[in-house]
Amino acid sequence: MNSIFVSGAAAGIGKATTLRFLDAGWLVGAYDLDQKNLKQLVAQVDEEKRQRLVTGTLDVTDELSWQQALDDFCQHTQGQLNLLYNNAGILHSGPFESISLDAQQSMIDVNVKGLLAGCYLALPFLEKAANESGSARVINMSSASAIYGQPNLAIYSASKFAVRGITEALDLEWSAKGIKVMDAMPLFVRTEMVTDMQGHTIQRLGVRLTPDMIADTIYTMAHYRGSRVHWYVGRQAKLMGIASKLSPSWLVRLSNKWIAR
């Protein structure tokens, strides 16, 4: 049975992805700090799916918490992990100087350092899966804000550029191990994360994606056998991705400035 470990699984995209993979017959590890919503998630699934669902506490900023969560889940998988989904992330929006330094740094701690720890500590379990089944993979949650730095999202955007770089490098580095590394790059998704988001970009572009749409993309990525690394989710993100590749840098900058004004 294939296995997936989901960080930030209690709500939003993480919850939708957990349910999507349970529906498909996978063994799912759903881990989060939010134990209240995790319990609600467990109560939502039927008894058969509950047998394939493992839940636990995970603080992605804590190395020991990561190790304990991975060890706990992989006790149910004969020590291997087919798919690590680094979904946990936070967002603070607004003019750069209006966001406290602690809040800015917390985005780096969760979105970058948390993902880094997940990749590093999951590697032995991924390698075991790759050796026994021929392949394993990591899917990182990036963002369309990693296409070009976004006003009012400066550090969030920077954190997702870091995710993009880690993804590209590890996909090359770990290919010899049989581990594929990819990232998902959606625009705004209808979750609590964007409820109070500040900035003209979200007002101009709107929120057109749902957690279920992202979950469907993650499921497709889990079975993908090609060489693609970055997955733009939704028509807007795909157009932005294409434009950034085909347009001169000054035009990309001008278009992003117009969107955010």
Automatic annotation (TrEMBL):
It is an enzyme of class 1 (oxidoreductase). InterPro entries: NAD(P)-bd_dom_sf (IPR036291), SDR_fam (IPR002347). Keywords: Oxidoreductase. GO terms for molecular function: diacetyl reductase ((S)-acetoin forming) (NAD+) activity. The keyword Oxidoreductase applies. It holds the Pfam family adh_short. Coiled coil: none annotated. PANTHER family: OXIDOREDUCTASE SADH-RELATED, RETINOL DEHYDROGENASE-RELATED. Belongs to the short-chain dehydrogenases/reductases (SDR) family. This is Diacetyl reductase [(S)-acetoin forming]. It comes from Pseudidiomarina piscicola. The lineage of its organism: Bacteria, Pseudomonadati, Pseudomonadota, Gammaproteobacteria, Alteromonadales.
